What we know:
2 domains
Amino acid sequence: MLTGHLPVTVMLIGAIGLAVGLAAGPRNPTLASRLPVEGEMPSLAGATGWLNSPPLTTAGMRGKVVLVDIWTYTCINWLRTLPYVRAWAAKYKDQGLVVIGVHSPEFPFEKDIANVRRSAKRMRVDYPIAVDSDHAVWRAFHNEYWPALYLVDAKGRIRYHQFGEGEYERTEQVIQRLLAEAGSGGAGRELASASVDTRGIEAAADWRDLKSPENYLGSDRTENFASPGGAARGGRRVFALPSRLRLNEWALSGEWTVAGNAIALHKAGGRIAYRFHARDLHLVMGPSGGTPVRFRVRLDGKPPGAAHGGDVDVQGNGTASEQRLYQLIRQPGPIADRQLEIEFLDPGVEAFVFTFG
């Protein structure tokens, strides 16, 4: 059983405060005098396939420093770490660093290797990817979180891990130290992390103004559903929006089915409303079949204008053409409580989770 994003997602961060440091903790420029040995790197034999590389083995990488990045392509927390992993893969490749992305899916559509391949290409993930659709590698690492980084030394021992966002400079310092131990690099060099240019959906969250935690839409895990009748799992139902939503409440209108891990729209014109407080709002969604679904976004009843996200235009128009994370809102500021409504102009959309940044 997968534990899920916790404690690295915005949901937990919102629940226990930013001070935990997983996502935005204080920088620690020094390393302990000794990095502990956390265990041996487990086998990758459970991978169901490989992208960008022939299959790699633990024995075959002995003598190399290995960074294992466990991810899933719709996870906003992983997306915001990706620029750093790309930078490390490029900078330290010639010094002996091997970066392996282990794609362990959260949603059923993320098990489709064609979806993983397409997403990896779009996100410029060109280092080796172990496709972990059965979560065998996830279990071998005793992992519980997306994203999770494990650093393995040249002797095949896990020496460091990082769960969630943040600690980029510290992680890079460990990379440098392990390369120095292996005799193929040196510590104390200029850090790529200090000059990584994050933009678009990969930009760090605005933690100071983030007051909305992620929220799954299926009945198994959703919170604060406000349409009359509740969100109990069942067949087709016609939902209505309440007259008012409080902060972090959401609701449906139109004919939907609420399943355990998603909601599905049956007729055009269905809407989702969400009251939130964040710079960014994202929705993991996509067509249930192969036909793209057009949608229109409104912010406080108006086109989003300058607050539109990367997947909609200034009038709020967009198209869900595949199952992935869509950025609907990026506010230029100031940040306040706002209400999003997304209306689907075609039937057949499935929606899974709202995330914020």
